[in-house]
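During the first year of the project, the team set up a workflow for recording each protein of interest as an amino acid sequence followed immediately by a discrete structure-token representation. This format lets reviewers and collaborators read both layers of information side by side without switching files. As required by the reporting guidelines, we include two representative entries from the current panel. The first entry is reproduced here exactly as it appears in our internal archive.
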Amino acid sequence: MAQPEPALTVYYDGACPLCRAEIGHYSAQPGAGAICFLDVSAQTNELPPELTREQALARFHVRLSDGRLASGAQGFVEIWKTLPRWRWAGRLASLPGVTLLLELGYRVFLPVRPYLSKAFGKLRS
């Protein structure tokens, strides 16, 4: 019997300690079985043709069940909508302007992510 298609496919940077911790949290949540978590830092994992490894490592991406890609804050919102314990955050983010504000915060976070990840990795070791 064929495996059902996941509700979401999450492309994350498994070489980033901060990213691994966050994905570890989401993957342990009830409902996470509907999500495929794919480490894009592993060269053996295939990516969809419209997403390069460089793009996937530079910015968070999620493939929806209809094939569309969501990235950045919208990608997180899609995870939140899927996980029962996070649906409140998905509903909140769906209010007018909230996802835009989250995206602006995400864009501020991206340049400092390597430094935060390095510091987080040191704390965890």
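The second entry, processed by the same pipeline in the following quarter, appears below.
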Amino acid sequence: MPLPEGTYGLMAEFETPTQLVRAAKAAHGAGYRRMDCYTPYPVEEAAEAIGFHRDEVSLVCLIGGLLGLAAMFTLETWISVWAYPVNVAGRPYYSWPAFVVPAYEWTILWAGLSAAFGMLALCGLPKPYHPVFNAPNFRSGATTDKFFLCLEATDPKFDTTETRSFLEKQAPLSVVEVEY
């Protein structure tokens, strides 16, 4: 069945986190890859069940720290050797031990800033709108006591009738279509 225009996906509502995790494992096992779980509190098993294992923030932090280190050493070298060379007690212009502390500080600063801004960028934030808020039952239960599994329409395996029947086999409280 062709995908209806303006459909984001199908969302199943569950009563307990155990049911959600079981349904997420079944969906992942059935070949669905574009899905997400929405819970009122963190459920680590749900993240593992849908195959969520991205950890690019640490790489962004490392790259930011290395860039900070290189930037400060470059700046100090340029200042000491080419821009404003000052002969202090016959010491060489390039005296790298004096550059270590400021370079370390810039490493920490750039790593922290790149981790913060990288996390926001990788999470797609700020995001003032998300289609799941169009689901009729999502606003009333997502932050209090319900657990949701949304299979997105962009998944290659997604077919409206087959996906709906698959979700209904997982014994949810309801299955609704989420529109854009």
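For the second entry, the following points were noted during internal review. The longest strand covers residues 7-14. The CA atoms of residues 80 and 93 lie 6 Å apart. Both points are flagged for discussion at the upcoming steering committee meeting.
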